[in-house]
What does this fold into?
Amino acid sequence: MSGKGTRLRPGKQVSEDVPTDGTGNGGTMKAQKDDALLTPAEVAALFRVDPKTVTRWAKAGKLSSIRTLGGHRRYRADEVKKFLEGVRQEA
It folds into this structure.
């Protein structure tokens, strides 16, 4: 791997240079991706449910998901945390 580009990995933060002037000739700023992304399996482990249940929650609108280029679902860690806190308050 040449090290060019940034691979987005579940549960990791991404920091990359983003051109601000649209020309690509310098003029960059540091962009911080604060939302860590979780896989359905990682979310399922937090809730102690099957990953398919997490997918059903996303289809029902209880939890929003992001689709990767390959069509896989990813969930924002901060949203999952809020959802988890809400579920715990109901129990």
In short: The beta strands are 14-19, 28-33, 37-38, 66-67, 73-76.
